[in-house]
Design goal:
Layout lengths: L7 E7 L9 H11 L4 E5 L7 E5 L16 E5 L2 H13 L3
Parallel strand pairs: 1-2, 1-3, 3-4
Length: 94
């Protein structure tokens, strides 16, 4: 697999965790490891973020998506969702 010369900058946002049904931080740690060199997780408010990943603990996905500048927003609401997003990112690689 060829790694991008620059990892995609992903703005990371967590929900409040009031009804978390899985380990959100553990899921992000796994994504971080598996997408090393492909995605770089940065603060959600960073102007460098190419897309915003909102990690919620349950399917209600109630975390605000107050992204007004048109950047793509992707929700991860479960470990299965995290796995799907990893595959989406890997499929985009040359």
């Amino acid at each position: 697999m060829t790694v991008r010369s620059h990892p995609k900058k992903v703005g990371l946002k967590y929900c409040g965790g009031c009804r978390a049904r899985y380990d959100r931080v553990g899921a992000v740690d796994s994504m971080r490891r598996r997408l090393e060199g492909i995605a770089e997780f940065i603060h959600q408010d960073s102007e460098d973020a190419e897309l915003i990943l909102i990690v919620t603990g349950c399917p209600s996905a109630c975390a605000s998506r107050d992204i007004k500048d048109g950047r793509m927003v992707r929700y991860v609401t479960s470990p299965e969702d995290a796995e799907e997003w990893i595959h989406e990112m890997l499929a985009q690689e040359p």
